[in-house]
Amino acid sequence: MNRKCYNSAVKDYSERIFRYAFKWTKKEDVSKDIVQEVFEKLWVNRKKVDVRKVKSWLFTTAHNLLANYSKKKKMISSEDLIYNEPAFVGSNYELQDLLEVSLNTLPTLQKSILLLRDSEGYDYKEIAEILNLNESQVKVYLFRARKKMKDYLKDLAVLTS
Description:
- By secondary structure, this protein is mostly helical.
- The protein is about 75% helix and about 0% strand.
- It has helices at about 5-25, 30-45, 55-75, 80-85, 95-105, 110-120, 125-130, 135-160.
């Protein structure tokens, strides 16, 4: 990969990687750091990265950095879930807030697949390439993620009745 291809990758994918990271972390500064680190790793590995697969390489790297961030910061701890869950769903809680809380209950892989598919619009084949899975696995994990979120939201609805 030469400098021109690298600059093109930065131009084409930095905003998308930022959105993906921000939906994961909800922190602008952390998301910017993730983007910076992804492109730093791309520059260091530019001779090894196939230009035709740069998009999947970038999102795979971002996914791995976000998974490490989650583990390091323990973003999803049982205490966080207990204290951050609404005791009831009322006018103070927007649907977006509820979706974010339920999204944060998902395992790392399911969360990534759901964000890549539903937020970023990638198809099954692209997600499989990014996460090093086959398309069938992506479909199964996506189905399970959506079901978990649906069940979680349904449980909240029962609590409010």
